[in-house]
Amino acid sequence: MFKTVTGEHQGMSEETAEALYRDPEQPVSRRVEDLLGRMTVEEKAGQLVGTWGGTLHHLNEIDDVADLVRDRGLGAAAPFGWGGSIGTEVGEIVDIVNRLQEVAVEETRLGVPLLFNVDAVHGHAYVADAAVFPNGLGAAATWNPDRIEAGADITATEIAATGAHQNYSPTCDVGREPRWGRVFETFGESPHLVGEMAAAKIRGYQGDGIEDEESVIATAKHFPAYSEPVRGEDAAPVDVSEYKLRNTFVRPFEAAFEAGVESVMPCYNSINGEPVHGSERYLTGLLRGDMGFDGHIVSDWGGIRHLHEEHKTASDLREAVYDSRSAGLDIASVGNDLEAEALVDLVESGDLAESVVDESVRRVLALKFRLGLFEDPYVEKEHALETVGADDHQQAALETARESLTLCSNDGILPLSGDEDVFVGGPNADDLLHQVGGWSVESAEHVDGTTIREELEAHVDGAVSYEQGTTLNSELDVEAAAEKAAAADVAVLALGEGWYLHEFGAGAPRTETGEFPTRERLDLGETQQALVDAVVETGTPVVGVLVTGRPLAVERLDEQADAVLMAYFPGSQGGRAVAETLVGENEPRGRLPITVPRSTAQTDVHHDYLNQPRPIGDHEHPDSYDPLYEFGHGLSYTEFEQRGVEVADTRVAPGDTVDVDVTVANVGDRDGSEVVQVYAEVESKTLVRPERELVGFERVDLDAGEERTVTVSVPVETLGVYAPGDGHRVEAGDYDLVVGEERHTVTVDGSYL
User: Fold this and answer.
1) Edge-to-edge strand ranges of the sheet holding 657-666
2) Between β-strands 707-715 and 270-271, what pairing exists: parallel, antiparallel or unpaired?
3) pLDDT of residue 735
4) What are the respective helix, strand and coil percentages of the chain, to the nearest 5?
5) How far apart are the C-alpha atoms of 751 and 753, rounded to whole Å?
6) How many CB atoms lie within 10 A of CB 53?
7) Per-residue H/E/C for 553-619
8) What are the DSSP calls for 618-686, one per residue?
9) What are phi and psi of 647, to 5 degrees?
10) Long-range CB contacts (< 8 A, 24+ apart) of 85-88?
11) pLDDT digits over 150-162, tens only?
12) Alpha-carbon radius of gyration of the chain
């Protein structure tokens, strides 16, 4: 039987209370070693296993969590967040956190505080009235790392105020499979863009260091290649070459390490037949060895038991625990006491060296000391109430949403004057849950925001009528919607997808819309398209607003509508941002971080496709890249010119940076924002390279009639490639840097790794 760690639960002895590890004046390393030397095997195992509050595989009430902390010594907990949380209101959450911390600190032998974790991927969105930012794709559409860093800083402040210490964010996955249910969490298809945005999030979360009371531990996930599963099905196997693994999927993690990320989470998938949670090749060989990561590795939810139950590479849970620990995993983030029991048995039987456990415990304890938890484990309710969802935080969420909205097409109908009679319809016109997207609260009552319908009613002087018409996948009253649209000057149809988490549908009990879309299709579905058809037939101009977490194939909508606005999942303030953009109070500034295909058949279309032969000739081959909307695309209400591209140094060497100067002019009559995008094209190199690849970008805001020279810095290393067997290298020769229609050749002197 698994032993309790506290005996009769008498709490700390007088001797323990005076121990060296209790002295904040001592170096962290000495405190760690002192505490480690006092711990039993059971206590060590407990520090490497976490638990949850709420419903996951079964219901854990707060008393259940307290018992696991007190009796089993579990060292981490997720008492609010995904899976039917036991706390949503701020005050409620603080009470839960403080109670559980009191159990850990006062009712266990050594008084080791808990590490609380949360999935706050786009704001502290599992907490009522928090500032909810656009989800990953929307954040990336800003092409503004400074904006994303500022939002992450706010998120960290709200997280810390409610007592959490570790955020399971950012998502470093590269969005290569639009059918995949979690593509909305990614920062798009470009490894460079994903890396820049992930690094920005890390800087925002961790600030000057996790020792800061308003900073939290950032967790780069899901290492190393989660986002191109077969069939697009979440957690399905990934078969990937070493070339693609290192040049596409691993690159954002390299950016995360450069930004100082403290933690990494592996992916659920098997990669080339090896489940990563049990793979020494990926966690020790690649992550710690080749890439030099020395932080702490935390499992995804259920990732260890999957080795036995799903992957079937382990005969039972004990073997799964052994495989994960041998591979290099430190902590089972949301495990259970059975995993701790198995770990104790492995050590006591001699099957697993205690030194392996000790190394992981050192990492965990060091984090807890650095966070200051031994000195101040509790949080203040009043401070939390004042902090979460503060006005300036919501304003920041609004600014991010404004900057993310991407105008994909416009026949001149936008911006609206505001005097029109407007019809509003569609499943996403009046639904806050769909608007904030996944990894959020389960009830609209807990969202401090307004819908597209509500905000149009506030921003339009003409009459605003409303009829939903359809849910995501079932008809309500299309005829009534068409009748109201016919009487309006313009129809705004908010279409797309609903709230979802890993997969493709909303799923009970969070919404009642059912599953949409299926994994096999990316179009609007029959019912939503029927609504569009009916409204178009009235002759009333149509503006399509896509609230979605993936690039939907909407070629038919593009042909029918007078304008298409990509809203992504824009967050708590997204309704206001959309309305302001439609009436011209906000300039559309977003640029697509991912390619929008013409059809489901184009699921593998990306801007950085590899060069290929055309043995029969160009006339016998379709264009390799012919999407509906290109990566980096986005229209404005004003006009820009990019000209006078200059590269000062055209001969470069290892360690150099190429500065690309671009003059950007706003030649329209409205203030606006443009994004300078620099692409590299490579010829005559040892390995096949992409036709073009994003290597740098810079956003610039310009008043009407203003022009400015913008510098985009491109490190020479960015022009290189990972060569299997050799490592990263930049070959000598010519590289073209392309901005719009202009290109400049840069010559690299000498090949180097």
Assistant:
1) 640-647, 657-666, 707-715
2) unpaired
3) 95
4) 35, 20, 45
5) 7
6) 26
7) CCHHHHHHCCEEEECCCCCCCHHHHHHHHHCCCCCCCCCCCCCECCCHHHCCCCCCCECCCCCCCHH
8) GGGS--S---SB-TT--B-SS-EEEEEEEES-SEE-TT-EEEEEEEEEE-SSS-EEEEEEEEEEE-S-S
9) -125, 115
10) 85/53, 85/54, 85/126, 85/442, 86/53, 86/54, 86/60, 86/61, 86/62, 87/53, 88/126, 88/127, 88/128, 88/441, 88/442, 88/443, 88/446
11) 999 999 999 999 9
12) 26
> What are the DSSP calls for 484-537, one per residue?
HHHTSSEEEEEEE----SSSSB--TTT-SS-B-S-TT--S--HHHHHHHHHHHH
pLDDT of the residue at 509? 32
Contacts of 285 (CB under 8 A, 6+ apart): none
Position 153 scores a pLDDT of 98
Q: Is 302 helix (H, G, I), strand (E, B) or coil?
A: coil
Beta carbons of 108 and 75 less than 8 angstroms apart: no
Say how many Å lie between the first and final Cα of the chain, rounded. 54
DSSP E strands in 177-281: the ranges are: 217-223, 263-266, 270-271, 274-275
Instruction: Give the distance, in angstroms, between the CA of residue 419 and the centroid of all CA atoms in the same chain.
Output: 38
Q: How many CA atoms lie within 13 Å of 275's alpha carbon, on the beta-carbon side? A: 24
Residues of the chain with pLDDT under 70: 1-12, 56-57, 81-84, 501-520, 751-753
Residue 624 CB: number of other CB atoms within 10 A?
12
pLDDT digits (tens, 9 = 90+) for 689-748: 999 999 999 999 999 999 999 999 999 999 999 999 889 999 999 999 999 999 999 999
What residue spans of 315-422 are helical by DSSP H?
A: 317-327, 337-348, 354-370, 381-387, 391-404
CA 81/CA 284 separation, integer angstroms: 30
- pLDDT reported for residue 753: 55
For residue 462, the surrounding DSSP H or E stretch is none
**259 three-state secondary structure:** coil
Query: Using omega within 30 degrees of 0 as the cis cutoff, is the peptide bond preceding 517 cis?
Result: yes
623, burial (CB in 10 Å: exposed 0-12, middle 13-18, buried 19+): exposed
Instruction: Check residue 616 and give its pLDDT.
Output: 81
Torsion angle (degrees, nearest 10) of CA 560, 565, 566, 572 = -130
Rounded CA-CA distance 661/191 in Å is 23
Q: State how far the Cα of 442 lies from the Cα of 433, in Å rounded to an integer.
A: 7
Rounded Cα–Cα distance for residues 218 and 212 (Å): 13
**Whole-number Å distance between alpha carbons of 669 and 119:** 43
Assess contact for 205 and 118: CB atoms under 8 A: no
* Residues 180 and 225: beta-carbon distance below 8 Å: no
The single-letter code of the amino acid at 210 is I
Burial class of 598 by CB neighbour count within 10 A (0 to 12, 13 to 18, 19+): middle
- Encoded tokens for 108: 């266990």
**Contact 362/32 with Cβ under 8 angstroms?**
yes
pLDDT of residue 508: 33
- Distance, in Å, from the CA atom of 224 to the CA atom of 202, rounded to the nearest integer, reads 17
Amino acid identity of 584? G
Question: Under a CB-based contact definition with an 8 Å cutoff, are residues 641 and 591 in contact?
Answer: no
Q: Tokens 């059918």, residue? A: 179
User: Which string of b and e fits 321-350 if b means at least 16 CB within 10 Å?
Assistant: bbbbbbbbbbbbbbbbbebbbbbbbbbeee
Quick check: helix, strand or coil at residue 747?
strand
What domains appear along the chain, each with residue ranges and CATH number? 119-272+384-402 (3.20.20.300), 405-587 (3.40.50.1700), 638-748 (2.60.40.10)
**Rounded Cα gap, residues 247 and 250, in angstroms:** 7
Which residue type sits at 105?
Answer: V
Cβ–Cβ contacts within 10 Å for residue 234, how many? 18
Asked if 389 and 123 count as a contact pair (C-beta separation under 8 A), the reply is no
The b/e string for 235-269 (b: 16+ C-beta within 10 A; e otherwise) is bebbebeeebbbbbbbbbbbbbbebebbbbbbbbb
